[in-house]
Specification:
16% of the residues lie in helices and 47% in strands. The chain has 322 residues and is of the alpha+beta class. It is elongated.
């Protein structure tokens, strides 16, 4: 089974519920007022044009057989998936694939039509559209639909993921099966706290269920639950979290290489809105690392949370037989 990072939020579970606890462990940097949320429509126009231009460059480069330009349109860990389930991940794999594909000459002619661009965050967008592909050697064109995810880095938009839609949509369980390795118990320890996390499948295996228990200096501090599911509206993995203090959050996940970027928005029990980007890095089946950046509380910047390690809890030893 392929190992991929998943949402396994640890000590500071998200952004909102434990802000005072986080501040105590991580002295806050000077706070500055910072507008958050999706940019106004007028401000999005240049970004929309830049994203559309990415597909124009893709079509032109494909027709010319320019493998280098194609691969550089993606993030370093970007992925491309076809309707049959084939997957390419990372610029090097994309470069090798397109170089091999174009070894006999230029590629097919591709005409792309963008149906919608939705900004999930100022630096994250989702696109949907159709492509008309005319074989280079002639023949009738065929049509496909696709979903794209786009990340803005250093002022430029890159493709993080492009997926052709299969003839038959995958089931929710099939979408989540890549996270199956997470099922089990996990522990995360800090100097004065420990978090116990447990993941399991729902009875219908269409949702991953998480429970967590935070203890500070050995005393109960916070508990909660989380549901991880495939969202048919956004065509992404999405999570919903509720804690024992009355706070809640939801988050969309974007995979980039061996990391997940988790764009989260939540509400504290006092009504203040919090946002953050969680960055989780897969290490191996028994260990992962995560950090939280771009954190805000009530539209004021909060200090980042440094990288923390979570480990899988070993199974309890079986009682010795008499």
């Amino acid at each position: 089974m392929k190992t991929r990072i998943t949402v396994a939020l640890g000590t500071v579970l998200f952004v909102a519920p434990l802000a005072p606890f986080v501040a105590a462990q991580n002295p806050a940097a000077p706070k500055t007022s910072q507008p958050q949320g999706r940019p106004p429509a007028a401000e999005r126009a240049p970004d929309e044009q830049a994203i559309k231009a990415t597909f124009d460059v893709f079509s032109q480069a494909y027709q010319k057989g320019d493998a280098k330009t194609l691969s550089e349109l993606f993030t370093p860990g970007g992925e491309a998936a076809d309707a049959e389930g084939g997957m390419l991940q990372g610029r090097e794999a994309l470069l090798q694939h397109y170089t091999s594909e174009f070894s006999g000459g230029s590629g097919d002619q591709i005409k792309t039509s963008i149906e919608s661009i939705t900004f999930l965050d100022p630096s994250l967008a989702r696109s949907t559209g159709t492509s008309e592909i005319t074989p280079n050697g002639g023949g009738a064109p065929h049509h496909t639909r696709f979903h794209g995810l786009h990340l803005k880095r250093d002022g430029r938009w890159f493709l993080a993921s492009v997926r052709e839609l299969p003839d038959a949509e995958l089931s929710p369980h099939e979408h989540l099966k890549q996270l199956e390795w997470l099922v089990g118990d996990w522990v995360e320890e800090a100097s004065e706290s420990v978090v116990f996390n447990s993941y399991r499948w729902s009875d219908d295996k269409n949702t991953l269920l998480r429970t967590f228990d935070l203890r500070v200096k050995g005393k109960p501090a916070l508990t909660g639950t989380q549901r991880i599911a495939w969202d048919p509206l956004t065509k992404q993995i999405k999570s919903w979290l509720f804690d024992s203090r009355g706070g809640y959050s939801d988050a969309l996940w974007v995979r980039e290489g061996n990391q997940w970027l988790i764009k989260a928005t939540g509400v504290r029990n006092d009504g203040r809105i919090a946002t953050a980007t969680q960055v989780l890095t897969f290490v191996n089946n028994d260990r992962l690392q995560w950090k939280s950046v771009d954190r805000t509380l009530a539209q004021e910047a909060e200090s980042d949370i440094v990288e923390i390690t979570m480990v899988r809890k070993p199974p309890e030893p079986k009682a010795a037989r008499p």
